[in-house]
Specification:
Shape of chain B: globular
CATH class of the largest domain in chain B: Mainly Alpha
Distance between the termini of chain A: 37 Å
Helix content of chain B: over 70%
Number of strands of chain B: 4
Number of helices of chain A: 10
CATH architecture of the largest domain in chain B: Orthogonal Bundle
Number of strands of chain A: 10
Radius of gyration of chain A: 17 Å
Helix content of chain A: 25-40%
Oligomer: heterodimer
Strand order of the largest sheet of chain B: 1-2
Strand content of chain B: under 5%
Shape of chain A: globular
Structural class of chain B: mainly alpha
CATH topology of the largest domain in chain B: ABC transporter involved in vitamin B12 uptake, BtuC
Largest sheet of chain A: 6 strands, mixed
Largest sheet of chain B: 2 strands, antiparallel
Largest interface: A-B, 30 and 24 residues
Strand content of chain A: 25-35%
Number of domains of chain B: 2
Chain lengths: 237, 549
């Protein structure tokens, strides 16, 4: 059964329509990539799912429940976590405090401590930097921290917005390999990326967005060989 | 850099000269001359005048390596010499333009006497050139002091300066304790005596040098050797000693100084409140005085025995009501501005502060809160049958309020509420995505902030016995905001330090009230350039500004 179902969603910034009837599904345990150019509506779709963007029409169903009755801050306890675009770490808090904030809605002290250790295993770099202020770390480290922080809420669905943005190629590979790791832990991932090449490599399925509409959807393997995708997003003629 | 750079030195020297000229022409030097630092030898006005070439000399010197002695000395003297030029020009101008005082009222004979030391203009001008060159050279020499002695030197210098400037305060405190002969030896008619200056300077110098050389290590060793139990005893003892000092403080300070401390205390209370709103939650509030006013008016109307009051409640019953009214106002202001950030929020809160003041002044509410005439005949607080009339008595009331404010701020900062505020301050969207309810978080900050301000207002009203709308100007909001910025935004000890510096110091320098805003502005600019993290920064802003280095 689908864990997340987005049905014919329309959304506007003022008078400008950003989403023109988006429909997509994400099944439990999958990694799904949403690719497309600038202004295609990728980030807006994620904002709509996470409740930061009001819908004009359409609905978003998570685990059989309509999300429209929940406010953005209530979605964390429903099991949806977000790694925002541009990382959005709390720059003036330490790494450890950032991770703590990720577990803000939880009360099980032992569980939180155990999860934090788990994150330090997944991202050993963060363990070295646990007392450093997050804003003083490199972009790659901040991306790791933002991902780990989102994982601290024990999500069922992880929304990732442009995790590769502004990172060196080596770090991009590292981030994408951790996406695979996270999937192994049973977390479902919806990934928004401009780096279509990497995004389709780690994903099971993919959707292609253009000016607020989904123009293509298929398994990631098929999309990688689609002539339109190759030409527009992979730079292959 | 090794070479003598005439252009750069001239720029700095002339800049200092123009500053010295400006402070002279606006009358600051003359006004400050009224206060002696060292009796008969050195006044605050002279300090102001000669600080410019000294700072110029120091500033010129720091651009060189330490070993370039000759270049440093000549550069300093050159900059000092040039900084005298504008003043000498002024002296020359007065001789060819006798009616200059019609245009520049502050160029008085007294000012000329300070500049020339009572000599003729020509001799006085030469004297000024020589003195200021010497001052520039001295400024440069300070840079040459070996690093080992720099800290002790500056400490001793500023301590002696402080003793001199605030000698009347010291004299007030010491008068009942020491015999006359000793006092006469220590203090002159105004300021401290030359002997005191030298003794204080040398004692301070030697103690800091001893501390740096051996004392510090001994102290660290002593600290390291202590067991945990001993350590907690020492800690308890020092907290106890601090509390005891706070309790007997009004007895030592006397009426006038306690009055000053009371004022500082009220600002500390407001500072802790605004620190929650601005420092912890990052919501820039420029209308903070509104809650102070609401607290004061609520207290006034509920307890007044005059025409406006009807309730005749006691202070203790009215106090929680006043605080409650401020909290409600804080939440009511909070609701419409929930969606606003940064500058927009600042403007709306600014407007709110003005609305409250205008409402209080207007005839609309004259029947209930007295309009421009205010609320009169507010009785003093009663405690166990005694009315708290003297400043020494209200001191304890304010002290209790401040202790509550410190405790609440400290516990809230380290609680989940504090984390919510800080996460929201860093990034509202991400905080929401972490599961933080922004509405309740913001309203809690506004409400808590307003509570402390309301408490301060209520005490203010009862202490003064009357409430007038003009006491609640925008300036108070700005003062409170400045004091938390100068102290160190988000820092709890910073609030106390900021209030002492921005509220306490001007009270002690009352005779210069005319120049208060000028000095205030200069201090804020200097602070932001030299120490942007504040005088006593929170651990986070300290790290933020040093980690990257």
């Amino acid at each position: 059964m689908a864990l997340l179902e987005v049905k014919d969603v329309h959304a506007y910034y003022g008078n400008i329509q950003a989403l023109e009837g988006i429909s997509l599904t994400v099944n439990e345990g999958e990694v799904v990539s949403l690719i497309g150019g600038n202004g295609a509506g990728k980030t807006t779709t994620l904002r709509a799912i996470s409740g930061l963007m009001p819908l004009r029409s359409g609905s978003i169903i998570f685990d059989g429940e309509d999300l429209s009755k929940y406010k953005a801050h209530e979605l964390v306890s429903k099991g949806i976590a977000m790694v925002p675009e541009g990382r959005g770490v709390f720059a003036r808090l330490t790494v450890e405090d950032n991770l703590d904030m990720g577990a803000y809605h939880r009360n099980d002290k032992d569980g939180i401590a155990a999860d934090m250790e788990r994150m330090y295993v997944l991202f050993p770099r963060l363990k070295e930097r646990r007392t450093q202020l997050a804003g003083t770390m490199s972009g790659g480290e901040q991306q790791m921290l933002a991902t780990a922080r989102a994982m601290m809420s024990r999500p069922r669905l992880l929304l990732m917005d442009e995790p590769s943005m502004g990172l060196a190629p080596v770090l991009v590979e590292l981030i994408f390999s951790t996406i695979a790791e996270i999937q192994k832990e049973g977390v479902t991932i919806l990934l928004v990326e401009q780096n279509a090449h990497m995004a389709l490599q780690v994903a099971d399925r993919g959707y292609v967005l253009q000016t607020g509409e989904i123009v293509l959807s298929n398994s990631a393997k098929v999309l990688q060989h689609d002539p339109m995708v190759q030409k527009a997003y992979l730079g292959i003629d | 850099m090794k070479k003598f750079d005439a252009k750069e030195n001239a720029n700095i020297g002339l800049l200092a000269g123009i500053i010295a000229l400006s402070v002279s022409v606006i009358g600051m030097v003359e006004a400050f001359d009224q206060r002696d630092i060292i009796t008969d030898y050195f006044s605050l006005g002279q300090l102001l005048l000669f600080a410019a070439p000294m700072i110029a000399g120091y500033y010129v010197a720091v651009r060189y390596e330490r070993d370039a002695n000759k270049v440093i000395l000549s550069s300093g003297a050159f900059a000092g010499f040039l900084s005298a030029i504008p003043l000498v020009g002024l002296l020359g101008l007065t001789s060819i333009w006798p009616t200059i005082r019609d245009s520049f009222v502050n160029i008085s004979p007294d000012l000329l006497e300070i500049l020339t030391a009572g000599q003729k203009l020509s001799i006085g001008g030469v004297r000024l050139l020589i003195l200021m060159s010497a001052m520039g050279a001295i400024g440069a020499v300070i840079y040459l002091i070996p690093t080992k002695y720099i800290r002790p030197f500056f400490f001793a210098f500023f301590l002696t300066l402080g003793l001199g400037v605030f000698s009347d305060v010291l004299l007030n405190i010491l008068r009942p304790m020491l015999p006359r002969a000793i006092l006469r030896f220590l203090f002159g008619t105004k300021g401290i005596t030359l002997a005191t200056t030298i003794i204080a300077f040398i004692i301070a110098l030697i103690s800091v040098m001893y501390w740096d050389a051996t004392g510090q290590d001994k102290y660290q060793k002593w600290k390291a050797e202590q067991t945990t139990a001993q350590r907690s005893t020492t800690q308890k003892a020092s907290v106890g000693a601090g509390m005891l000092l706070l309790l007997v403080l009004p007895l030592i300070l006397g009426t006038y100084l306690t009055e000053v401390v009371d004022n500082v205390g009220l600002y500390i209370l407001m500072g802790f409140g605004l620190n929650i709103v601005v420092g912890f939650a990052g919501l820039l509030d420029l209308g903070y005085v509104a809650f102070f006013a609401i607290g004061a008016y609520t207290m006034g109307i509920l307890t007044s025995t005059g025409g406006l009051g009807g309730a005749h409640l006691s202070f203790w019953v009215a106090l929680p009501i006043a605080v409650g009214a401020a909290i409600i106002a804080g939440v009511i202001l909070g609701i419409p501005v929930l969606g606003m950030r940064g500058d927009y929020l600042a403007i709306v809160t600014l407007g709110f502060g003005e609305i409250i003041r205008v409402l209080a002044t207007s005839d609309l509410l004259k029947e209930t809160i007295g309009g421009a005439q205010g609320v009169l005949q507010i009785p003093k607080p009663q405690l166990m049958g005694y009315a708290l009339i003297q400043p020494q008595q209200s001191y304890y009331l304010i002290l209790a309020g401040v202790i509550v404010a410190i405790y609440v701020s400290w516990r809230m900062r380290d609680s989940r509420a504090g984390r919510r505020w800080m996460a929201m301050r860093e990034d509202e969207d991400v905080a929401e995505a972490m599961g933080i309810h922004l509405i309740s978080t913001k309203l809690l900050a506004f409400g808590m902030g307003a509570a402390f301000s309301g408490l301060a207002g209520a005490i203010f009203a009862a202490r003064l016995g009357s409430v007038f709308p003009h006491s609640f100007s925008l300036l108070i909001s700005i003062n409170v905001l400045s004091l938390i910025i100068v102290g160190g935004i988000g820092s709890l000890p910073g609030v106390v330090v900021g209030a002492l510096v921005l509220v306490g110091l001007p009270e002690l320098l009352r005779e210069f009230a005319e120049y208060r805003m000028l000095l205030y502005g200069a201090l804020l600019v200097a602070m932001m350039l030299v120490r942007p993290e504040g005088l006593w920064p929170s651990s986070i802003s300290k790290r933020e500004l040093t980690d990257n280095k």
